[in-house]
Write a structure and sequence with these properties.
This protein has 503 residues and is of the alpha+beta class. It has 20 helices and twelve strands. It has helices spanning 4-13, 24-35, 39-60, 76-81, 89-98, 117-125, 137-143, 153-167, 170-188, 198-215, 221-236, 248-269, 276-287, 293-328, 330-345, 355-360, 362-375, 407-411, 427-430, 450-467, and strands at residues 101-106, 109-114, 131-133, 196-197, 383-385, 389-391, 394-397, 402-405, 468-473, 479-480, 486-487, 492-497. Strand 1 and strand 2 (109-114) form a beta hairpin. Helix 8 packs antiparallel against helix 13 (276-287), helix 9 runs antiparallel to helix 10 (198-215) and helix 11 (221-236) runs antiparallel to helix 12 (248-269). The chain binds protoporphyrin IX containing FE (HEM). It is a single-pass membrane protein.
Length: 503
């Protein structure tokens, strides 16, 4: 006669439902409890000890110093709790204790964090050789499996080449400058005499620019629909992938379904074809003739979703913090205004701002760099080691570990940035040499949208400082930095019109 366990296995194996729907695991648990009330706690303790031992074995492979924290969670909670603060408490404290290259255990993975400039640079520069991207599963689920941040090797190189040559090429972006300027002028035309929430304005502006460049659509109903769902989707990316109706991730997944449907409907009915989507699909079709139509469409859609994500919230957050820092520092406002008024003086009446003007305004560019240094849009990025990495003959990063090059620590390192919490755009000129800056990442994955983002912010600043004398902050805003830099009140301001006009 078959024992109870064998019968269960037979039932499960044959897809049967012998015990009113009970699965094998539940039956095993039930039996364990029936045998002895003490068995379950014993199994739990033994499993915990085995797991700790396993983890200790894995962690000991790296000769770095560090700690592995609690069972299962490791040091994830401590790491996450610092994310809302502008300061890297967790990383700084660990670096003080263990050195600037240390080991820990995060998101169920043995991890090395690099907080020293030299190692941070090495990690981003060895992309595809010693390291590859390793973004959380929630990114792939919400942005789509073919999005640029989750693909590697040939597929990634092909997508990147395409983006650089067809989407973010300076010649193409040059043509968009008038459109960006028109949008800024229109937005600012209603700012006088009311409280303006800069975050709302910046998010709308940055989204409209990205949507025009990526989808070729202008502000309107379709644009608003995608924008609202993209906000929900993006929020979900930074939480554990637990798909329940009330979790941020679950809401993000529903928003993704809506974005995919909206995009699919739009792509089928759009009046002008031969756009980014079509060109990309054509590129892949020629390169990988074995890909099915469904795969091609998926890759096309994920390219669009990935760009909509990468392009707008990052830029919007930087706009908001630029307005905050410039408004709080009258001497910076005066200097930036001088630079922008000089540009106006050299122009004929009615002549427009150009891409070249923006690139040539060095103080403005330093203001943007300083904002990105302080406001932490990108605190780190996610990598994994492709092979054992040795430093000084010691195995420090074993193959397959998660690696976080910590940009924020470099940006706040007083060796490079004296008085690091001070907003000081002059530091770039004074330093003489190039300061280490990872606001747009580094190496082969360096942000291809940096010039577009800088131009958008420059145009916003141009009209802000030449139309308004200053802006007053309404109430006290509290900054938070997770998942993106935000201000608790969305930066409400009241502008003071400019009394003096140039020329
Ligand atoms: C201030 C605004 C922005 C910031 C701070 C920013 C930051 C970054 C960073 C740090 C990375 C590197 C990620 C990594 O190494 O894992 C990156 C990649 C990327 N960014 Fe940006 N970005 C901004 C604006 C934009 C814009 C406007 C676009 C385009 C519309 C864009 C498109 C991309 C793309 C496609 C990638 C992936 C590149 C690759 O994997 O090869 N970004 N960005």
């Amino acid at each position: 006669m078959m024992g109870a366990l064998q019968q269960q296995e037979a039932g499960v194996m044959s897809g049967g439902d012998l015990n009113g729907g009970l699965g094998l695991t539940q039956m095993l648990l039930q039996q364990a409890m029936m045998i002895n009330g003490m068995t379950l706690p014993v199994i739990a303790v033994a499993a915990g000890m085995w797991w700790r031992w396993q983890r200790a074995v894995v962690m000991s492979k790296s000769k770095l110093r560090g700690s592995s924290g609690f069972p299962l969670l490791g040091e994830t909670m401590a790491y996450m709790s610092q994310m809302g603060s502008p300061l890297a408490n967790f990383v700084d404290n660990k670096a003080k204790r263990y050195g600037k290259l240390f080991k820990t255990h995060l998101f169920f993975q043995p991890t090395v964090i690099a907080a020293e400039e030299e190692e941070v640079r090495m990690i981003v520069q060895k992309e595809g050789k010693l390291f590859d991207v390793n973004y959380p599963t929630s990114f792939a689920n919400l942005l789509g499996p073919y999005n640029g941040l989750n693909i590697v090797g040939h597929m990634w190189k092909r997508m990147r080449r395409f983006i650089v040559a067809n989407v973010l090429k300076p010649e193409l972006l040059r043509e968009r400058v008038n459109f960006i300027e028109d949008m800024v002028i229109e937005a600012l035309s209603s700012w006088e005499g009311r409280t303006v929430f800069v975050e709302d304005e910046a998010r709308a502006l940055a989204f409209h620019v990205t949507a025009l460049i990526v989808l070729n659509i202008h502000p309107g109903e379709l644009n608003d629909k995608i924008k609202e769902d993209m906000y929900i989707l993006i929020k979900g990316m930074f939480f554990l992938p637990i798909d329940l109706p009330w979790t941020a991730y679950g809401k993000g997944m529903r928003a993704r379904e809506r974005v995919v449907k909206t995009l699919t409907d739009y792509l089928e009915s759009r009046p002008v074809k031969d756009d980014i989507y079509d060109k990309f699909i054509q590129t892949i079709r020629e390169d990988s003739p074995e890909d099915t139509e469904e795969m091609l469409r998926g890759q096309g859609r994920d390219l669009l979703t990935g760009l909509l994500f990468a392009g707008h919230d990052t830029t919007a957050a930087t706009m908001v913090f630029t307005v905050k820092y410039v408004g709080e520092n009258p001497h910076v406002l005066a200097e930036i205004r001088k630079e922008h008024e000089n540009v106006i003086k050299l122009k004929q009446p009615g002549e427009r701002l150009t891409w070249e003007d923006c690139k040539a305004m060095s103080f403005t560019q330093d203001v943007i760099t300083e904002t990105l240094r302080l406001c932490n849009v990108s605190t780190t990025t996610f990598r994994k080691s492709l092979e054992d990495v040795h430093v000084g003959g010691k195995l420090v990063i074993p193959k397959g570990w998660m690696v976080l090059p910590y940009f924020r620590s470099v940006h706040y390192d007083p060796t490079f940035y004296p008085d690091p919490y001070k907003f000081n755009p002059w530091r770039y000129k004074e330093a003489g040499t190039k300061l280490p800056f990872f606001g747009f990442g580094g190496g082969a994955r360096l942000c291809p949208g940096s010039e577009l983002a800088r131009t958008e912010i420059c145009i916003l600043l141009h009209h802000l400082v030449t139309k308004f004398d200053s802006w007053e902050f309404i109430g006290k805003d509290i900054p938070s930095f997770f998942p993106f830099p935000r201000l608790s009140k969305r930066l409400p301001i009241r502008v003071k019109p400019r009394r003096k006009t140039v020329k």
